[in-house]
Every structure is written in structure tokens, then in C-alpha cells.
Amino acid sequence: MRVRPITREDHPAVVAICTKAFEHDELWVHLYPNMDKYPDDLRRSQAIRFRMRLVSAGQLGFVVETEPGDPDWSGKPEVVGYAYFLRWGKDEAAKKWQTDSLFWSRLIFNSQ
């Protein structure tokens, strides 16, 4: 397995992982008490959170994907996990993180 920075293309896989992970979580069941009637509400909420994190300054996301040689290799890379990190603090390094959006940097460099 390999770890790489999260991209916009990872959206469906990350939202599916989030939805599956939190569908029986007590907090999310409390926040969405009618999940049996409206099962798509939690998925929509997770999708919005993902999009917000992707463009918010000070946040950095990674995904874990399968690669050849992994026991669960299906012949193509599959996202099997993700993590987001948020930088807190008031020192100069934290201030730089909080003003630079890594998403915008990647968007600019990848479009050239």
C-alpha cells in the first residue's frame, strides 16, 4: 500500500469510506435520526465536509491506496483509507499553514 496526497478524484472513495465508517456511530445517528427514511443525508453531509476540507487553508489530506503486491490487489489502485490533518498554533510555521491552501498550490501546479 502507498500513501499519497488526497485529490479531487478521490472524492467518491473517501465519501464512501466516511459514510460506511460513521453510519452506526452514536453521534451521527443522533445528528441524523431519520437515516432509515433518508439514508442519503449522511453521505451528502460527508461529501460537503470533504469538499470543504479540500479547499480550506491549513488542512492536509492523504489517502492510502492498494498497489501491486498487496494481498487485496484487484488489478487497479483502490483507496482503502484516508486521513486529514489540521495545523493549530500561533507560531510562524502554523501561521503559514493557516494561510496557504495546499489545494490551491496543487491546482495551480497541476494545471500547467
How are the secondary structure elements laid out?
Elements: E1 2-5, H1 11-22, H2 26-31, H3 40-55, E2 59-65, E3 79-86, H4 92-99, H5 102-110
Antiparallel strand pairs: 1-2, 2-3
Helix pairs in contact: 1-3
Structure description:
- The chain has 112 residues and is of the alpha+beta class.
- The chain has a single domain (2-110), classed as Aminopeptidase.
- The chain has five helices and three strands, in the order βαααββαα.
- The chain has a three-stranded antiparallel sheet.
- The protein is flat, with a radius of gyration of 16 Å.
- The two termini are 29 Å apart.
- The relative contact order is 0.18.
Question: Which structural class matches the secondary elements?
Answer: alpha+beta
Number of strands: 3
- Give the spatial strand order of the biggest sheet: 1-2-3
What is the CATH first-level class name?
Alpha Beta
Instruction: Supply Rg.
Output: 16 Å
CATH topology: Aminopeptidase
Shape descriptor: flat
Q: How many separate structural domains?
A: 1
* Biggest sheet details: 3 strands, antiparallel
Instruction: Specify the CATH architecture.
Output: 3-Layer(aba) Sandwich
Spans of at least 5 consecutive residues whose pLDDT stays below 50 are none
Strand composition percent = 15-25%
Helix/strand order, N-terminal first: EHHHEEHH
